[in-house]
Amino acid sequence: MRFIGIVLLAAIVLGLAILGVNGILSYWDTDFIPGEAFPDAWTGPDSWSEWRDIVIVFTALFWLLAGIVFVAVAIALFLLISVTRKVMKENAVPAIDSLKASLDNVKGTTEFAGETVASPIIRVYSVFKGVRTGLGAVSSVGDRIKSRKRGK
């Protein structure tokens, strides 16, 4: 397929080159291939009006090709959008729902761990801190009494 495209492109470039050279030579009233050499053959344009007609034809062909390419790109874009919507509906939405369920599960596990593990530890530490503070208060009472008796 690529070979055919290269051959077609080479033929187009060669044809345009021959027309260009013939156009340049026609400025001096000569032809690339004289018409007398091949009487029934097509020769290059002899006047600017013929060149104009050729350019109009090539311009129309290029616009036609551009229109075909535009329609093909528009169809491809439409198909791409429809496939993307289908993939989003069939794959992304369930994946997002599954992710939400997993996050809810993690949240529940965290709350459970906080209530069953952290709360008892906090209670034990609070009791320990309270007992320590109480013992500190009781032991400092004796120091306060001793310091009052000394007169300080």
What does this molecule look like?
The protein is mainly alpha-helical and 152 residues long. Helix content is 84%, strand content 0%. The protein has helices at 2-26, 48-150. The longest helix has 103 residues, at 48-150. The model has no long low-confidence stretch (mean pLDDT 81).
Task: Spell out the blueprint of helices and strands.
Elements: H1 2-26, H2 48-150
Write a concise keyword list for the protein shown above.
single chain, 152 residues, mainly alpha, 84% helix, rod-shaped
Count of alpha/pi helices: 2
* Quaternary organization: single chain
Helix and strand sequence = HH
Beta strands, count: 0
Q: How much strand?
A: under 5%
- Distance N to C terminus: 109 Å
Q: Compute the gyration radius: what is it?
A: 47 Å
Given as residue ranges, the uncertain stretches (5+ residues, pLDDT < 50) are none
Mean pLDDT: 81
Choose one word for the global shape: rod-shaped
The largest sheet, given as strand count, sense and whether it forms a barrel, is: none
Instruction: Find the structural class using helix and strand composition.
Output: mainly alpha
Percent helix among the residues? over 70%
Task: Write a compact overview of the structure shown.
This protein is an all-alpha fold. It is built from two helices and no strands. The protein has helices at residues 2-26, 48-150.
